[in-house]
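Run: sequence + F0G -> complex structure.
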Amino acid sequence: MSVKPFLDYPPLKTIIEPFRVRSVEPICFSTPEERRAALAAAGYNPFLLRADQVTIDLLTDSGTGAMSSRQWAGMIASDESYAGATSFYKFEAAVKDIFGFKHVIPTHQGRAAERILASVAVKPGDVVPSNTHFDTTRANIEYARAEARDLVIAEGRQPQVIHPFKGNMDLDRLRRTIAEVGRERIPFVMLTITNNSGGGQPVSLANIRAVSEIAHEHGIPFIIDACRFAENSWFIKTREDGYADKSTLEIAREIFSYADGCTMSAKKDGMANIGGFLALNDDDLALHCRNLLILTEGFPTYGGMAGYDMEAIAVGLYEALDENYLRYRVRSIMYLAEKLTAAGVPIVQPPGGHALYLDGRAMLPHIPDHQYPAWSLANALYLAGGIRSVEIGTVMFGQQPDGSERPAPLDLVRLAFPRRVYMQSHFDYLAEAILLVHDRREQITGHRIVWQAPFLRHFTARLEPVR
Ligand code: F0G
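>> structure
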């Protein structure tokens, strides 16, 4: 007797948000007049806007994600003991399982891990090579009176060039830097995955392996800035030969197996609102870092985090590696990129894992570098649609230690996407606003700085439009 078989349907192609919503947060709307007044009051600096003056907030993907019901469950059941909290041991076990390092030093966020590492390991006159240092990493190295040197491949500096791993380090330049500077003045080599300041571009496993080999040949430790390790793992899975059948977890483990440690901001691929860690294999270095941790962050089983933060991260690190989530995340950014590219909007190609970058210099050629085209574009997006983005260009990176200014190699506007927060209609709204600004780009004017801090000026600078 034969059983009637089920109909055989092909797999569906629509990629959907791999979650449903059970707690919502209202979005704020404003009129064009309200936005003009708000921007003027904020010194034409989107960092100084109040969040309730913003409709779609793409300032950062850092600490802005939506947490899952499992993360909340962990948070409610947290252990807030000062020393030896079970929440710490869950956090430590997750970090060791994924990253594989011997010592896990909790910190309140990524830059605290960077500061501790730089304070302990970096001497005045040292050079720290990376693909591209993120601004806080650069500032912490410069604060230790050392040089943060960016060695990304040439393609990584050319916004329109399509390359699967534009975050790769130029290996010849790394070898030349080591030969020129000498091993004694290089405390460690870094790689930022994905390369945030270079357009959110991934680094291939072949490049990670090669950087590790070169550093280790010279006895130099290799440290990874791991903020977006899960997105980088997904790009390796989908773009690098030989990894399609490996899970993102396996890929992540392989990445970190080549390194001696990492700094991590759990506000990104830790899926948490706050937190981070420094993880290291070297006992002696870890000991010194823990001593400094106690002085400035907290006891080694919390390091500036609440127990519930560590619970959120212990769950979040695995959720960030979920392949349905990563597929949806990368696809939704690509969806926006396709709409913009079809209309001729210049973006960094291909779009990154956490963000899409508009090329300010290419879109606004009538605005000279010293009047900040990308900054001016970011302000236009706010005026058009209440969209808050961030300039990654000359205001952020142009200020030199001696007080002079140099145009940044790329002058970009970053639209960074909070994790699990915005849906497809928000992306359609964004596309409409960006296309409107693009259509009227010739009317956008530049800006000048009227006040700035001596370093990391973009956070607090006040500007005015050039009329
Ligand atoms: N490294 C990278 C690559 C980052 O993107 C960030 C933060 C940090 C380190 C520092 O981590 O904020 O936890 O202290 N990036 C945020 C951003 C601020 O908007 O890209 P943190």
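>> summary
The first strand starts at residue 56 and ends at 57. The mean pLDDT is 96.
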